[in-house]
Amino acid sequence: MTPKHLTLDAGRQAYRESGEGPAIVLLHGISSGAASWAPVAPLLAGYRMLAWDAPGYGESQPLAQAEPRAADYAARLDAWLDALGIERCVLVGHSLGAMMASAYAARRPERLAGVVLADPALGYRDADEAKRDSVYRSRWTMLAEQGHDAYAAARAPRLLREGADEADIARVREGMRRLHVEGFAQASWMLANDALEAYLPEGLPVPATVLCGDEDAITPPEACRALAERLGLPYRDIPRAGHASYIDAPEAFAEAVEAFARPLLAASTGTRKRTTP
């Protein structure tokens, strides 16, 4: 995927792009970035693949809000898709990206052909204050105190299945080395103080599905199945995959996304025009 950027009213927005055709938009999780989707993109031939670096990640300008909600990320996402000329797409949100995807579905359902909630983080808005504070401080403070190398070495294997390939661990580790404390702290605030289902009181307003690695120890399959049941959505395991299921099992992940997206995007070009930054 080719690194690119746009300058929006809110500042620089970085992303990666590959392919041609209807658009599939990829939103990474809290410890990752656009580059993490590289194993999946080549497996989805026939689509325009767009993976953003969330605000405060990579070369993307952080949000103005020190304590953002998923709706604030959705507003930036909307501006980015406007700038790219995307009229209709399938939105794939992984982990914390699933919360952003849900907020975006509530904001702009007419732009979405469908939504994939992959290994979705539910958020801790309804937890007690002590728990919310613990979640907020559990990641970015460790990064600030330990440094990128030590943090990545300790945390990267937890995102993958038991006995994960060393190359996959290295990919996750490298993504963590690119984290910025400010953007990481903003995303941690959102995780601790917002909730995915708060944006969906009547369920998803567009077709959707839930995916989860069958060895996910961070957002376990039973929790993801329960979410799918509450929202009335189909659920699918990704075999031999941990939390970063699209890195552990890119072929199975891509097949699941393609099976979901194909009928929804078959009749849509998804783009007004191409934008060349």
From TrEMBL:
It comes from the Bacteria. The keyword tRNA processing does not apply. The keyword Magnesium does not apply. Keywords: Hydrolase. GO terms for molecular function: hydrolase activity. Residues 22-250 form the AB hydrolase-1 domain. This is Alpha/beta hydrolase. It comes from Halomonas koreensis.
